[in-house]
């Protein structure tokens, strides 16, 4: 199958989001430490994953809606511009997510926080090229609701499962074994890496 | 510009911060009470192994006169590691230095040469007034939404005072913080419990009641600040106020527990109208409300009226005047500055509702004029005032001046500036470092101390 790589990239992006402390595992660890409970760490992962999945679902629903009426070349062009726009914004203004969700938040607040963080990162947009690829493998030139819905659902699932698995693994390792000291050295600038990745993807899409 | 790794001075928890390397320099705000020469941030060598230990080794002068530098803070701190507002790749390199009188805000870069910091931006009072409608800038804390600056008055010098936000990269004024201030009018200090999404603010007065000194009629009329305000930190909404009552005046410095799981803290009340005593109160969570209880009362000391300034003569007693407090990083020891009597008192506050005195030294003081082993002069004036504790809790630094217009009300013969350092025992007890005494150069008086890399009143933490 030629569409092996899109699945890998969907999972890889999920793993990247899962590894990024700012995307959720750190919040799960913090809540676990505050309530002194590993169960809270586990429970927190659910709304974090739901919020993240909702954010990318929102983008893919928009893709399907536009895809039904817009020519593929145009869609790819618009997607490339959108990704470059987000990269430019993040590069210029930085990742300032002043999301007003506190440390006493409940599970709904945590899901909302995860949704807003993923959305402001442009997480869903990065999935578009892979989903476009998958849709095109079977239905040349058309991205409509009927053919894109199952592919999109599968894409969201693969991305979210990968994200959740890495989030859970890191959260539990830090909570139970590594400790917070890891934050001081291992928290590399994911935001900058993400901005670079967005920029590169946008350019490739534009040229390709 | 962001970095690849978190700033090495950030620590997730207070326990980890207490193991940070020792500070080698301290920054001290110094002001000219006569407003004739520029105020400055002085750099003090606090490395005992250095040949210039206990000396001023650098200084940055402000570009104007009459700022009245008072309190200042860092652009970024350990709260950048918080999970709900993570931005750990900013650098802690800028000191944000407000003028309490001028309402001017100076951004001082300490990075290229920590001993020779330089001013990189000055934000004028009109910019702050236009964007946030505030003036008389007082305290700086870095936190979840950037840099928080509080102000004691609106742009015209009236109530309400409050808080505005500053971007921690660009230093642009982002606007007023409060969305619903409820009954809050007066401002003085502020800090928060990050783990409980709660901000606390305290009260002083409007500029017309302090810029020419304390006004006896206002004080005796119980019209200076006496309340604590509790806010939702994220909704920026006033939740509750606690009135300490008519007897208590000047409810000032706030020191919440550093451990973010703990929901209590301490506030100093400068003076009681009943008997001139000073007091420390503990606020704490009581069900779904906040409560406060007086836990320490420091009595006034009888004194010969001939030795007292006019403001105290009729009372025949020297008031302790608790003007600053500071809490060690392990939340175990509270340090209390008695600017009137000259005492620095250390309390074990392991049980925050039942403190125990564990150490006391005396230096300066309105009547006692106690000296220091290294002081050339036998009688020191001023008294323990702004106090700062090293992150490991072993070194305590303080200076002796309160505020230009108030200093002569209590020390009419003037204040000669000094800065001293105490050593603290592991289980309590304090003593002078006999080798550390900064005889402050004439013309300036030292005020707040900030330590390289952070100290016990700079950072806040999200993890226990």
UniProtKB/TrEMBL annotation, chain A:
Keywords: Membrane, Transmembrane, Transmembrane helix. The chain crosses the membrane at residues 6-33, 40-69, 75-95, 107-132, 152-178, 190-207. It comes from the Bacteria. This is Uncharacterized protein.
UniProtKB/TrEMBL annotation, chain B:
SUPFAM superfamilies: 3-carboxy-cis,cis-mucoante lactonizing enzyme (SSF75011). InterPro entries: Se-bd (IPR008826). Transmembrane segments: none annotated. Belongs to the selenium-binding protein family. This is Selenium-binding family protein. It comes from Sinorhizobium numidicum.
